[in-house]
TrEMBL record, chain A:
It comes from Methylobacterium persicinum. It comes from the Bacteria. Its cofactor is heme. Belongs to the cytochrome P450 family. CDD domains: CYP164-like. Residues 55-76 are annotated as: Disordered. Pfam families: p450 (PF00067). This is Cytochrome P450.
From TrEMBL, chain B:
Residues 405-426 are annotated as: Disordered. Gene3D superfamilies: 3.30.390.30, FAD/NAD(P)-binding domain. Pfam families: Pyr_redox_2, Reductase_C. Residues 9-314 form the FAD/NAD(P)-binding domain. Residues 336-409 form the Reductase C-terminal domain. It comes from Methylobacterium persicinum. It comes from the Bacteria. The keyword Transferase does not apply. This is NADPH-dependent 2,4-dienoyl-CoA reductase/sulfur reductase-like enzyme. Residues 410-426 have a biased composition (Basic and acidic residues). Keywords: FAD, Flavoprotein, Oxidoreductase. InterPro entries: FAD-oxidoreductase/Apoptosis, FAD/NAD-bd_sf, FAD/NAD-binding_dom, FAD/NAD-linked_Rdtase_dimer_sf, Reductase_C.
UniProtKB/TrEMBL annotation, chain C:
It comes from the Bacteria. The keyword Chloroplast does not apply. This is Ferredoxin. Keywords: Electron transport, Iron, Iron-sulfur, Metal-binding, Transport. SUPFAM superfamilies: 4Fe-4S ferredoxins (SSF54862). Coiled coil: none annotated. The keyword Transport applies. It holds the Pfam family Fer4_13.
Amino acid sequence: MADATLLKQVKDFANRANPYPIYARLRQNPVSLQDDGSPDGTWVAASHGAISSLLGDPRVSSQTLPPADRPRTGNPITDFLIKPIKDRITDHHRPFIFRDPPDHDALRAAVMNQFTRERVQGMRERSDRLVAELLDAKRDARRFDAVDDLAYPLPVTVICELFGVPREDEPQFHDWATQLATALEPDSLTDDDTRAKNSRTFDTIAEYMGSLIKDKRRHPKDDMLSGLANEATPTGVKMGDYDLIATSILMLVAGHETTVNLITNGLLTLLRHPDELEKLRADPARAPRVIEELLRYEPPVQFRTRTTLSPIDIAGVTIPEGADLVLLLAAGNRDANAFDDPERFDPDRKGTRHLGFGGSLHYCVGAPLARFEAEAALTALARRLKNPRLVEDPPPYRPGAALRGPEHLLVAIDGMA
Amino acid sequence: MPADARPERIVVVGAGLAGLRGAEAIRAAGFRGSLTIVGNEPHRPYDRPPLSKHVLTGQVAADASQLPSSLGDDVTWRLSIGAETLDREARRLRLSNGETLPYDRLLIATGTRARPWIHADEAKLRNVFSIRSRDDAASLRATLAAKPKRVLVIGAGFIGCEVAAVCRELDLPVCLIDSSPSPLARALGHTIGAYIGEIHRGRGVDLRMGSEVAHLEHADGRATGARLKDGEVLSADVVVVALGAVRNTEWMTGSGLSADSGGVDCDDHGHVLDESGQPDRSIAAAGDVARFPHPLYGGRRVALEHWGHAVAQAEHAGRLLVGEDLPVPYAALPNFWSIQGDMVVKSAGLTDGADAVAIVQGDPADRRFVALYGRAGRCIAAVAVDSARWLPAYADKVASGAPFPPIDTATDRPLREPEIRDPGFA
Amino acid sequence: MRVSVDLNLCQAYAQCCYAAPRYFRIDGREALFYDPSPAAADRVEIERARLACPVQAIRVQDPEA
């Protein structure tokens, strides 16, 4: 019988720096029922095959957020008239990461329609310049924090510029994004305190986005939010305000909270494999290989949650209807049935069908941005950091188990080229 | 030399996708002896799917689709040369230029050719086309680029539908004609074919289903239109004949192999069979020309004209000839795709013999759906229209022969029982 | 260079279209258009596209490499 406490161990902050041995134990059963304190437990898929299959299974739903339930204020008008309406609106206009087709498909198509190759190409060039500016600012430093000095500001600036969020408003997004990103951590969905904070934050950011959208309608510019607010979607209808708000919040939060981990995990991994750092320095064209391997080896999103609409027979077990499901992407990425010598960081491996961006309908929308931001950052770091050394290994981690990455990554350097 | 000795000379007959991938597999399996590829076209192996799509729209040049390959210089190419006869006793081929070519192992990958128009004299008219080779596609492309007034496509199978869709993309009037009640009816049945037909009709294709062409009308060596069996005459200044394919097996006549216009028979390893049903272990076949027993379909012999199958079976056959131990039987799930304009039709499994079909996801009204086919209570095939990401889930059900219908709910249609319908095969 | 895509595998993730926009494009919802003979000078772009494909459907032969 499988150890049912493994999911608890994954969530345990003490294991944040290296959850992979726990993943290996979970993988001994491709799908297992774990005791995480919830009444019915949580099913965990940990093999590459089971995860791939469940990602594309039409009986697996992404509607995992519990009903909105704003905290009561004590004011009867607010609590009994306004709150139910607001809660209902929130429930009906979830961001599409928490929705199923056909609504998911329509909203996603609207975003993809604005996510044009020209816009993305423009941001690619912009990323290279941003990286150069951010590193120039640390030219004389002897110590460098990969998170604060590069990995956080780069994607944040990119997503804000892409959406047309004014630069001066950007700093307030930091706290909002950190708070809302907890919605991807399973425990936060049931923890009352976190849910209350998330609803307050959502209302604040929604108010901000609402007025920004009004502004984009009055003064459209060449940015994605203007496009979404003013142009018809591929299905011929304009997105309603509530969906527009939820969608843009999703993109902004995702842009704040994920790529930072890819870049930071990337530098950390390269510093732990100095031969690979040197190879990348010598040949920047290796970057795409390095990045695909990083997405396999240290994916920024370690797992996603789902729920089942029908019983599912898989890998010798039956997941019942209505079950909570964790798809442990980072465990599937180290499955020996899918990758030779999976615990080895090897950018030269052939054919990586990694799960770093998930798969099927909900495959990461921002994947192209993440790829070139990471390419810009890692090639520049490899080229410019003189004699980089990790100050602490492992570095301190952020709280999240799902969105997993270092809080800071201090690197001692002899200067910046 | 006996069949179990190490081969020194391997010959691949057929320089298409299957021949190429087979030759690569032979080298990848460690064979270092002489390797010869014989092909009757003058070109190195090229990819055919673009020929009926982006080559016709002019977005890809006809000569641009040469296939990537891992073969090095240690391969002898005998191009513009066909195989004429096969002498299995002496283990040699006679080629169309009179040469003989000895082999220790032979891979048969001669594929198919376009089924010609029923009246040979009309097939020779200057503006009557079929599409099989790169050169066919190049001349049809040049003709379409000259903005003909009306294109007539005879045959509403996959190629016919693709060509009709290309014509609409080029804003050319096009008429698609077939004796079936709907496009793709032979492959997908009338129930699903009717939905596909509506999509084409919506794009401006003039669909003439349930009609048959008796003769092409012509003057001065050019077709001017078609006379239907009911007497109606349709004018056209380009005619595309898309009546499917004929397998290239004539050269095996007299070899003692069990071969006919439906292909050459193979055992479950992939070795060819002689007329008494005994395998010849020095010869394997792959791709469109190979008729093999498929375990998913009760061991019934099928010959599949599918791109993915040509790759998979050729890899299998190549390794087999070099003497590798392989899982028996060869059992890859048949699958194919067709790009019709900007619509993608994909399928897994075979619909043959289906007695039921259900739309299990999406909605034909949105031009986006998955149809699942059942036979005797088991899933046998799935067809996805603009729904590629859902297909693997249903392909798994087909591969495991799951009960039909297998999935009782889906994210886009919770708690909705699929309606089971007659697939409408004639 | 020679490029072919296994369109049985392709699920229109469009990662190739962002990696090598001059050579890959999605028409409609999921119809992939690709150029089977890209310029040798663009091999870095093509390699990016090949590596980024989530289903590893792109095959490349680079006679110069």
